[in-house]
Amino acid sequence: MKSRRKHGFQFMTILYFVIVFSMCVSRSNVIMTIMGGQLTRVEEINLLPFHSVRENLQYGRNPISWDMLYNMVMFVPFGIIYCYYQKHFRVYKAVRMSCLTTFFIESAQFILKTGVVDIDDFIVNTLGSLMGIMAYAILQQISFKNQKFEIHELIDISATMLPPMFIAFIAEMFLGDGSLKLLPVHCVVLLCYGIFVYVFLIRDFTRKAKVYYLACYVGAFYLSRVLL
To answer: What CA–CA distance (Å, rounded) separates 163 from 63?
Structure first.
């Protein structure tokens, strides 16, 4: 069972890299290709740190935009992933890989001319990865002290909650308008994937652990809907 969860996490890691690359580097072009529209070419570069924050303040808006928060949250898993796959955990290795990932994405945008190369994006994305690294380090310390769970096993189990959240997020992005019309869709996604997870991943849990997982699963799902 542990091996199955580990393989599942490895699959989701690959899928996540593909999705983030598509979203960050070629999101508009992928959408336009599907719709048969004209591809865009962007050659803007901003090397002035915190330009977005100053611009938002200048126009009387919140200095931290939702786009910045989205980017930060989107890169949190990278920090966790780079810690998870280390044989001997070192913070500096995860930080280095996080910076290289963000640099690679910004460089790809510049070479392919599919987005604005922005130093603010580099800062925000790297901060998101650092948050993931901090979360991993804290959980690792807790696991060492309590010795009730192993950090990789906890991450494997927690990662099973992510796919339905991502599906619901995509549905909101393309179909949502702030109304409750997608609530049935969310419930169906939650239920179907929940059955799959139970049958293939958590069936061997104790009753108490199943209840905890169910509460976290449903709670995290709907909390993500409220926040995003």
So the answer is: 31
End-to-end alpha carbon distance in the chain: 32
Separation CA 80–CA 100 (nearest Å): 15
**Phi then psi dihedrals of residue 148, to 5 deg:** -100, -15
- Torsion angle in degrees (nearest 10) through CA of 98, 70, 66, 96: 0
In sequence order, the 6+-apart residues with CB closer than 8 A to the CB of 205 are 213
The token pair that represents 145 in the structure block: 């002290």
Count of beta carbons in the 10 Å neighbourhood of residue 136: 22
pLDDT tens readout for residues 92-101: 999 999 999 9
Among 157, 168, 99, which residue's Cα sits nearest to residue 127? Answer: 99
Cα separation of 110 and 117, whole Å?
6
* Residue pLDDT, tens place only, 39-72: 455 566 777 777 777 777 777 777 777 778 878 8
Residue 221, Cα to own-chain centre: how many angstroms? 14
Q: What is the pTM of this model?
A: 0.76
CB 64 within 8 A of CB 53: yes
SS3 content of the chain, % helix, strand, coil (to 5): 75, 5, 20
Q: Are 63 and 56 in contact (CB under 8 A)?
A: yes
Of 108, 101, 94, 201, nearest to 157 (Cα)? 201
